[in-house]
Every structure is written in C-alpha cells, then in structure tokens.
C-alpha cells in the first residue's frame, strides 16, 4: 500500500523529517504550512494563513484519498512566556486548533488522526521508574496541561465519530536541525565553555527525530494503533553527564564538564529563581515504551550513538 498523509507543521524540525521519511517509503505528503516554499522537496504544500487552523478545512484535500493526518503543529513549550494568560494561549492552538484539524480531516474522509502530544502531558519527572501510559497525569505547566486536554478531546471526538485517533507522547526530540535547549547545549560544548554537568546521574529519555518519524508512520498504518496512547523513545536512556560526554566527543570539543553535585545545582537554582529549570536537568524522566513494542512491533531503528553522531555532524557543517 502506498501511504498518503497530511502533515501539519510540515516546515518544522520534526515535520520535515517525517515528510522525508514518508517520501522515502514511496508515499506522498500534503504539508500544512504557514508560509509557502518552506516544506521539504516533494511535499505538496497547502498554506494555512489563519491562526489556530481557523481556515484548515479549505486546505485539506477532498479530491484525493489520504490515509492519515500526522498532527505536529503546536504552540511549543516556552521557558519564558510573555502571554498574560499562557494557558488560554496554549489551549487556542493545542486544543481548539487540533480539534479543528481533526474535524476537517473527518469531513474530508480521512480515517486516521495521529496526534503528536508530549510526555509533559504526564509531567516533568518519573516516579522512580519509567513512566507508563497508564500513569496518573500530573502536568506541571500550561503547555503540558494543554497537551493532555487535547489528547482527551481528540479521543472523545474519535468515540463520537468513529475516526481513528492515535496519541504519541515523545520526550525531547533531537537530530539535524534541532533548536532550543539541545542546540544551546551543543553550542556551549563546541565553544569549550565549562559546564556543571560532570556529576549528574539522572537519566532522561530522548528520541532521535528519525526514530520518531518511523513510529509515526507505524501509527499511521498499523491496524492495532487506533484508540491507544504510546510512549516512544530511543532504546537507551542516557544520564545527563553521559549525554554531554558523548556530544563532546562527537563535536571534537575539549572535555570541560565540571563535576558539580546535584544538591549544589539545586541550591543555585533556588537562589537564582531557576528551580524549575534545574529540576528538569537533575531529575529522572524516563519513558516505558513496552506498549509501542508489543502493540506496534516497533523498535527504534537508530541507536542513540548514531542519532547523536548525525546531529553533531549537522552542527559542525551548519555552524
């Protein structure tokens, strides 16, 4: 079967990778974008000019068969949000906007909707073991709250209409083209800036963007996927120190990781008003991906070492 999908956020870091993976499999992609000529080569672009997908219905095809929507577009997590009411802003895009896309897709006859949520819908740390899909949600910020509300709203929509809803909760995604905190970490390491990351034992799940692309395609096609939520991550959870050391080696940078105890970092976070950021650094956040393996038969095709190597090679060539 030739896969035909609609990818929202097709011009973004993950959207470009997912689109390329579908095309590599011989499939076709309709990419929903905000500006023309921003998606990858081979993607059929449909421009969504309005905010929060208010005009999405006109962009979805009714003249050709599509198998699924992979919904990536979102208001992303911001460390310093300037909105007066951040939760309302997140809800407009992540809840209301996602439902608009699902309704439009259903009206266009598209049978499946793969919603890329976030592990932050459950929380920012694990309870001493990897997080399972059945764990009680406890999102700690407006972004996580909005993602959880979107999950619930979409599952209800699926029950009402018969549309096949699949929820995917990745952790931090990395790979060529990555931005935000991961890019800042690589920049600091490449510049040889001493970092207080030499003694952090906390392990945090990550997912290489091509691993995420592979499981999203599986969720768009596997008959066992609908109605379920899946945690997805690389096959190995690195400690923060291990991650920094591996990136240092891949970037060919000097090893300047200072072994500062986690308790000292926690104290410094309290003094500087950055306790939340420090806790994300020194706390465990691991995902249990058993369901994806058992239900979908999915295992990450790329080991973490290969993902970090490709990411570092991209950084060296781009910067």
TrEMBL record:
Region (Disordered): 125-144
One Pfam family of this chain: Epimerase
SUPFAM superfamilies, A to Z: NAD(P)-binding Rossmann-fold domains
Start-end of Basic and acidic residues biased regions: 126-135
Residues annotated as domain NAD-dependent epimerase/dehydratase: 5-232
Name of the featured protein: SDR family oxidoreductase
Region forming the signal peptide: none
InterPro entries per the UniProt record, alphabetical: Epimerase_deHydtase, Lipid_A_modif_metabolic_enz, NAD(P)-bd_dom_sf
Superkingdom: Bacteria
CDD domains listed in its UniProt record: UDP_G4E_4_SDR_e
